[in-house]
Amino acid sequence: MSIEILALVALVPILVALVLMVGMRWPATKAMPVAWLTAAIGAVAVWQLPVMYVAALTLQGFVTAIGILIIVFGAILILRTLQHSGGMETIQYGMQNISADRRIQAIIIGYMFAAFIEGAAGFGTPAALAAPLLLSLGFPPLAAAIICLVFNSFPVTFGAVGTPVILGLKYLAPGVEAAVNSGAPVNFANMGEFNAIIGQWATLMHLGMIFILPVFMLGFITRFFSPDKSWKPGLAAWKFCLFAAVSFTVPYMFFAWNVGPEFPSLIGGLVGLGIIIVGAKAGFCVPKDVWTFGDEKKWDPEWTGAVSCESCNSFKPHMSQFRAWLPYILIGLILVVTRIPELGLKGFLAAQALKFNSILGFDSVNASIAYLYLPGTIPFTLVALLTVLIHGMPASKVKASWAQAIATMKNPTIALFAAVALVSIFRGSGIADVALNPNSYPSMPLSMAKAVAAITGNAWPMFASFVGGLGAFITGSNTVSDLLFAEFQWGVAAQLDLPRQIIVAAQAVGGGMGNMICIHNIVAACAVVGLSGMEGQILKRTVWPFLLYGTVVGIVACLLSFVFVPGLF
Predict the structure, then answer these.
(1) CA 487 to CA 494: how far, in whole Å?
(2) Peptide bond before 379: cis, by omega within 30 degrees of 0?
(3) Segment (H or E) for 354
(4) How far apart are CA 363 and CA 331, in angstroms?
(5) Distance CA 516, CA 216 (A)
(6) Can you give the pTM of this predicted structure?
(7) How many helices (H) and strands (E) does the chain have?
(8) Lower CB density within 10 Å: C or N end of the chain?
(9) 3-state DSSP assignment of residue 368
(10) Is 235 in contact with 219 (CB distance < 8 Å)?
């Protein structure tokens, strides 16, 4: 069978997910199981894989999904615990009293605070926290949603303490190992070093938009939401935007290049937040005039949907700011202690794993869960337990926190099980075993890679990040986008003799920028600001910064591929 036909068959499950979720507006809980079933049918009917082997690959995907879900649960649990302890409202209260200028508030909360939350928790939590906070400060709901969605892009590659890189690229391990053993001139010795290098290149690709995006978005917001419909008021705050970008970028780059992919967004957001809050209070780089959205009575009804700022929350402090922030400080400290190899804990925690070998009797199908090394257990769940003591929570609120966290897991569990099982079938379809793959067909991702390589040629670096964005758009997750497309990107790079590190990094960056158009994120953002049913209006606006982001990243990827690092593996 021709590679073109195989590529089309491999593409069908992705198209099914896209049509069902975008065209027919199915939730991922329904669409992803159908997409998985489509992939399973293609694997059996076209690749002629044994049914039991496909079942084993599906179970392998379930085990991998459990690892991701442990992180999701821990992230949600720490959020719910802080909400019930009063810590989150105290943090929000502190944010309210920094500046009356909506442009400054958008940068502090939508750009920097959300970046920190993404680095610490990920999985949609920035929109859940930052958008209602902006709403409470007097932002139109539509503006609040757009700001939080668009700014939740550059931190996402390193969201939830590096999960999209560390777990998202795990299926590249055989290729990385083969490269190391081949004697090729590589600059990594193992998967950990490869992940670190991907994070480093990703920061360079994000770098331009870290500086461009805040200026562009403030101009974008004042153009569509100011009384005079002008870009000028937003662009006038460019000095504060650059101040914020530098404050974030310095620790972001330092930790990416010196420590690893767990910390750039977490530390960059936390350090940057402290710096720009002090700067804003001192009036540093702050415009002399104070800009607002004008009289609420004159707002376009489309801006507000079902809510108005009269119904917004008024936040109150329940404790000191230090006590409120202490759980997040502990998360950062514990991560540092458990992620630096020289301190000894990293190796011990990583070695504690539940292993599932030879699933359903197939020697090549294995999986494991490093239950203590996953950030969902240490530090998220651990810190959630410590917060009970730090914030003096009564048993009733602790119970409510856990109950809400568990209840929230239903939909992500269904969607992730199906999505990661689909990915497992994708990658297992090309097994080099005639008994299992009688036609010796390449895997589904590699089939697509070969077909795409023949079409695009060496122009692929310009488009690589858009594939990552498509993955996030479909699956709602940078991590799952990387699981779905990282091998595909590696295959395209191999076919075209392009530097694999750069192309895979572009995939990781694309998964981050795809968050601003991701249907799941848009639905969630609409829900928290009272705009349910207006998802199309938001997507119509966020697609423009998405295209700008992808264009800038594509240019950088081309330069890195062809100018700065020729011949890099």
Answers:
(1) 10
(2) yes
(3) strand 354-356
(4) 38
(5) 15
(6) 0.77
(7) 26, 2
(8) N
(9) strand
(10) yes
The sign of the dihedral angle between the CA atoms of 465, 468, 473, 478 is: negative
As a whole number of angstroms, the distance between CA 228 and CA 331 comes to 44
Q: Give me the mean pLDDT over the 180-206 stretch.
A: 89
- The residue whose two tokens read 């490269």 is 179
Cα separation, 122 vs 298, whole angstroms:
36
Helices (H), 516-569: 519-529, 535-559
Element (H or E) spanning 369, and its range?
Answer: strand 367-369
Length of the chain: 569
Tens digits of residue pLDDT in 83-104: 899 998 888 788 777 888 999 9
Look up residue 542 and give its amino acid.
T
Are the CB atoms for 365 and 358 separated by under 8 Å? yes
Q: Distance from CA of residue 136 to its chain's centroid?
A: 25
Is 316 buried (19+), middle (13-18) or exposed (0-12) by CB count in 10 A? exposed
Instruction: Please state the separation of Cα 487 from the chain's center in Å.
Output: 18
Alpha helices for 283-409 (secondary structure H)? 301-304, 321-339, 345-351, 382-390, 395-408
What's phi and psi for 184, nearest 5 deg?
-65, 155
Give the whole-angstrom CA distance, residue 465 versus residue 553: 7
Tell me phi and psi for residue 367, to 5 degrees. Answer: -160, 160
pLDDT band at 107 (very low <50, low <70, confident <90, very high): very high
Q: Which helix (H) or strand (E) holds 103?
A: helix 102-105
Q: Span 452-479, mean pLDDT?
A: 87
Pure H helices in 409-499: 410-428, 444-456, 464-475, 478-496
Q: What is the largest CA-CA distance in the chain?
A: 73
Do 468 and 510 form a contact (C-beta atoms < 8 A)?
Answer: yes
**Is residue 314 over pLDDT 70?**
no
Note whether 75 and 121 are within 8 A (CB): yes
Q: How far apart are CA 465 and CA 508, in angstroms?
A: 8
Question: H-type helices in 86-158, by residue range?
Answer: 87-96, 102-105, 114-120, 125-136, 141-151
What the block records as the tokens of 201 is 């290149």
Asked if pLDDT for residue 519 goes beyond 80, the answer is no
Pairwise CA distance, residues 88 & 227, whole Å: 33
- What average pLDDT does range 378-398 have in this prediction? 93
Crossing angle of helices 141-151/191-225, nearest 10°? 150
Residue 356 backbone dihedrals phi, psi, to 5 degrees: -120, 95
Q: Which residues, including other chains, have CB under 8 Å from residue 223's CB and lie 6 or more apart?
A: 229, 230, 231, 234
